[in-house]
């Protein structure tokens, strides 16, 4: 609580109000998402002699839970004890939720056990604490012991099972339920999308008599996650035809699908919809628009979206840096990164560094990439992850510094991933470096023990590039004997808003 400072002007206004009015202000601010301001108002309220009650404390505790501020939560709990409201049912339930959001199951259990008369809300709060903390087996045990259950209890368990991929258990509960509401259906659909079973998810979706925007968003997001991008785009237009108003999550999902498909026409149509509906102020939508235009080859349109946006969050900056790097504008990406960090209000995160390191890699900016990699921890307190090491391996490999790339692969504090190994092996083919290629092969065997069709082909090409034709034939034979077939490349074109896929030699096109 000490980190929040009161606002003098608001204190002056509150001094002319009663306690009920102060409580209304706090509830209004919390409902509008101004959580920190609601807590500041509470501080002002105390300074003029008013105190929270059994209606105010639940709102404040919920705000502290959403802010993930343990210090605030503990301080508020102490104040409920001091003011005599810690034994009130509303406050106790809010405390259970608070400690559940912190992952402190023991404290949540202690509060729950202290509740004299437990209603459905109290039981469900404790159940949700178990499920949302990943303790689904404990949640199931608790669910079976519950004295009071309702449809909310069922929904919590379906979501809990879905979150850990136990779809069969979720479906068993769903099918046996005497009463199901819209949340039950949405939770079950989400469980299927979580394991990329879009056939079952779509069956449930089609059998529903009532759907809301969450239903549509779950299926669209599931299609994108399962790389069924055309289906995601098609469902978006079905949604509009059904007169369901898409929100920022819907738009972000369909723009992601357009980005992967290279569907510029459709992406521009979605952009027009965004402008007409006044949704361009959403960070999520702005970031998705930048990514869509960049991936569809329109970097200047991406820049227009970026610079026309009044407020930019870290995802907008990262998307723009990534787009510039993808198009080979490495120096521009570095300048944008410097602009972002110079402002000081937005600090780079892991995704930003992946974007800027990739930009250096695509433009051959070895020195700058090495400097940025060193700055991650020294200047920004970010410990490099395997993805960042992968970017550095790619940077060094593309520049022909294969020895340094191999050394980094062997000394990095993670097992080399498929992307990093593939980047170095590809560079070995380009530079006809058989010795380093064999070292990469050893790393592949030691870390994974198996190889993909693309890696088989790269090794065959490496030996062929070095004039070792017998060895190249041997690797191709090994691939054939293993029953592996090289994944065929294909092209996708957009005609009148529809996507068509074709392979070399195809006489007919098909939907991707």
Automatic annotation (TrEMBL):
<dbReference type="InterPro" id="IPR011990">
    <property type="entry name" value="TPR-like_helical_dom_sf"/>
</dbReference>
<feature type="repeat" description="PPR">
    <location>
        <begin position="313"/>
        <end position="347"/>
    </location>
</feature>
<keyword id="KW-0677">Repeat</keyword>
<feature type="repeat" description="PPR">
    <location>
        <begin position="119"/>
        <end position="153"/>
    </location>
</feature>
<dbReference type="GO" id="GO:0009451">
    <property type="term" value="P:RNA modification"/>
</dbReference>
<dbReference type="Pfam" id="PF20431">
    <property type="entry name" value="E_motif"/>
</dbReference>
<feature type="repeat" description="PPR">
    <location>
        <begin position="212"/>
        <end position="246"/>
    </location>
</feature>
<dbReference type="InterPro" id="IPR046960">
    <property type="entry name" value="PPR_At4g14850-like_plant"/>
</dbReference>
<dbReference type="InterPro" id="IPR002885">
    <property type="entry name" value="PPR_rpt"/>
</dbReference>
<protein>
    <recommendedName>
        <fullName>Pentatricopeptide repeat-containing protein</fullName>
    </recommendedName>
</protein>
<feature type="repeat" description="PPR">
    <location>
        <begin position="181"/>
        <end position="211"/>
    </location>
</feature>
<dbReference type="GO" id="GO:0003723">
    <property type="term" value="F:RNA binding"/>
</dbReference>
<dbReference type="InterPro" id="IPR046848">
    <property type="entry name" value="E_motif"/>
</dbReference>
<dbReference type="Pfam" id="PF13041">
    <property type="entry name" value="PPR_2"/>
</dbReference>
<dbReference type="Pfam" id="PF01535">
    <property type="entry name" value="PPR"/>
</dbReference>
């Amino acid at each position: 609580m000490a980190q929040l400072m009161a606002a003098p002007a608001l204190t002056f206004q509150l001094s002319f109000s009663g306690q009920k009015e102060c409580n209304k202000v706090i509830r209004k601010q919390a409902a509008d998402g101004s959580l920190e301001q609601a807590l500041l108002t509470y501080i002002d309220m105390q300074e003029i002699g008013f105190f929270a009650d059994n209606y105010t404390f639940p709102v404040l505790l919920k705000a502290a839970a959403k802010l993930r501020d343990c210090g605030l939560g503990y301080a508020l709990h102490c104040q409920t004890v001091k003011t005599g409201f810690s034994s009130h049912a509303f406050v106790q339930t809010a405390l259970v939720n608070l400690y559940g959001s912190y992952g402190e199951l023991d404290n949540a259990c202690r509060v729950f056990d202290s509740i004299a008369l437990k209603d459905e809300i109290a039981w469900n709060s404790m159940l949700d604490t178990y499920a949302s903390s990943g303790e689904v087996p404990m949640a199931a045990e608790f669910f079976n012991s519950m004295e009071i259950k309702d449809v909310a209890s069922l929904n919590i368990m379906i979501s809990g099972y879905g979150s850990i991929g136990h779809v069969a258990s979720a479906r068993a509960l769903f099918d046996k339920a005497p009463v199901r509401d819209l949340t039950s259906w949405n939770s079950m659909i989400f469980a299927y999308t979580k394991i990329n079973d879009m056939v079952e998810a779509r069956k449930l979706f089609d059998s529903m008599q009532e759907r809301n925007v969450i239903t549509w968003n779950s299926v669209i997001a599931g299609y994108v996650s399962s790389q069924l991008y055309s289906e995601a785009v098609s469902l978006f237009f079905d949604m509009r035809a059904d007169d369901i108003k898409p929100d920022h999550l819907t738009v972000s999902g369909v723009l992601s699908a357009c980005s992967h498909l290279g569907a510029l026409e459709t992406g521009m149509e979605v952009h027009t919809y965004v402008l007409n509906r006044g949704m361009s102020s959403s960070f999520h939508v702005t970031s998705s628009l930048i990514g869509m235009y960049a991936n569809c080859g329109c970097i200047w349109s991406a820049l227009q979206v970026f610079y026309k946006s009044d407020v930019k969050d870290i995802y907008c900056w990262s998307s723009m840096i990534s787009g510039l790097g993808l198009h080979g504008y490495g120096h521009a990406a570095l300048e944008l990164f410097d602009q972002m960090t110079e402002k000081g209000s937005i600090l780079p995160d892991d995704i930003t560094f992946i974007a800027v390191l990739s930009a250096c890699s695509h433009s051959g900016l070895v020195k700058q990439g090495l400097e940025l990699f060193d700055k991650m921890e020294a200047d920004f307190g970010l410990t490099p992850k395997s993805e960042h090491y992968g970017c550095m391996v790619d940077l060094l490999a593309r520049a022909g510094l294969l020895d340094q790339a191999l050394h980094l692969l062997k000394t990095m504090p993670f097992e080399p991933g498929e992307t990093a190994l593939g980047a170095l092996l590809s560079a070995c083919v380009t530079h006809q470096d058989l010795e380093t290629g064999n070292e990469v092969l050893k790393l592949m065997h030691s870390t994974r023990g198996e190889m993909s069709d693309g890696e088989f082909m790269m090794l065959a090409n490496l030996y062929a590039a070095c004039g070792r034709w017998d060895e190249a034939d041997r690797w191709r034979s090994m691939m054939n004997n293993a029953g592996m077939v090289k994944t065929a490349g294909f092209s996708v074109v957009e005609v009148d808003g529809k996507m068509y896929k074709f392979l070399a030699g195809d006489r007919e096109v098909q939907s991707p």
